[in-house]
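Support request, please re-run this one:
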Amino acid sequence: DVQLQAFGGGRVQPGGSLRLSCAASGFTFEDYAMSWFRQAPGKEREGVACIHTNAGSTDYADSVKGRFTITRDNAKNTVYLQMNSLKPEDTAVYYCFVGGYWGQGTLVTVSS
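Re-run finished. Output below.
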């Protein structure tokens, strides 16, 4: 079974940083693009970042470009999301996603 376990969320002040991790199992990790999505209270889920397989090319939502970095470690079957210069509008539950499967989500709260 595909399993995605996201962790690393928490509460941080504006301007702070967090690193999210998503440990994957149940599929050949290196063969799949991995994505992070987020869902803020009262809003629809939106794509944040994606990292592809070959050469690890990446895509980002305009709202996080220059602040967030997605990386992957194929040896550890893990995808990361480094979030810097966090803003209150980044507050959301963050989910990792692959091929139709969602992780359980980890809450990020940006507040002073």
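The chain has a mean pLDDT of 96. The CA atoms of residues 5 and 104 lie 7 Å apart.
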